[in-house]
Amino acid sequence: MHIHILGICGTFMAGLAVLAKQLGHTVVGSDVAIYPPMSTQLAEQGIECKQGYLAEHLNPRPDCVIIGNALSRGNPAIEAVLNLGIPYISGAQWLAEQLLHNRWVIAIAGTHGKTTTSSMVAWILTDAGLECGFLIGGVPENFGVSARLGSVPFFVVEADEYDTAFFDKRAKFVHYRPRTLILNNLEFDHADIYPDLAAIQRQFHHLVRTVPSQGLIVYNGQQNSLQTVLKQGCWTPTETFAQTNSAWQAHLLTTDGSAFTVSHKGQTQGEVHWQLCGEHNVHNALAAIIACQHVGILPQQACEALSRFQNVKRRLECRGVAQQITVYDDFAHHPTAIRVTMQALRQRVGDARIIAVLEPRSATMKMGYFQNELAPALQQADAIFLYQSPQLGWSLAKAVPNGHLCHDTETLIQQLCEFTRPNDHILIMSNGGFENIHQRLLKALNQKTPNGFF
Q: Which of 76, 279, 338, 394 could bridge across to 368 with cysteines, CB 3.0–4.6 Å?
């Protein structure tokens, strides 16, 4: 079958492209935002990605078009699909019908930590000799690809609460029918489709309704927002983490969370010594360990696997070191994610200077939500540099008065080079390509001399 994917470079859709090709389909796609790591993944898989949403990209006529949720009516490709009568389907529905209907689905949902926790679960199963299938909204370093079919019944899926498609406004995750479900946390986000937190909680409860009574829901006991969801009705056994009275506990052995023990009802189950840092990642790990026990992996075995876990691209990823200055890339696009990432890096580097670089790019950020939360979220930084893109309709300077404001990335790179010094840590946060600023900055830093630039 010839499949064309509209929005193929999205983190979810790029994974679908990989799965469709592994199933033996001919896969091509179109997108307007083409940047790593997904563009790299598609190229490595030999999947053609066409620039733009042009009607002629649908020639030769595909047998089916999978439509991403970023596209809407009025898009030339969408109008061509409808006018030509080409069969179409959403990514979430295609995944459910083609792959998930006969699998033991392990779904990871929540505002934050979905990608990392999904990667942990997939790695624990793989390390135990179970080649699970997975579809993750990022590229786990242990696998080097965001999706695979797998050869066992288990399938790990990052369960996104964003809407499904222009013709299906339900959350994507209601299609997945998990047997094991992790609910990491729940905060307001996606202001472009949800009016308030209650609307998101309603979608989460639709998800809870699909979990069988012989399944398991693992949830963050600290989150009142999740408690509210479950109080609407829950027909499935539950386990909690991150709560002082939870049966499952993690005990830090280091202040930065790079080592910890795991206990169940007071009995030590194992230790984790890993590359990651931050209490939020410890909680992600605990959720993954509990979920994996539900499918038959002993906690000790899971702890040992996590000690070999290599994290995910764009999650506090070190992109390089130039002139003793370390540059990181992080996907943080919500004040909570910014805050916990900043805290984790601070715990790791101690008193060294942290220079935060932020591009507010998510739909919620562009709409002006969280303006008041930005400055507190960035308070761990020694200096803050802000990119005011033309698409941002509000003033970053007013939201973060102590930040250095830039209106183009060339100026931003120049200012960073002038400001930084050896042993600094530059944390770049954006959920977009950010005009390849990471590599451009490293190149510029390498040209830096004590007296200026070459």
A: 394
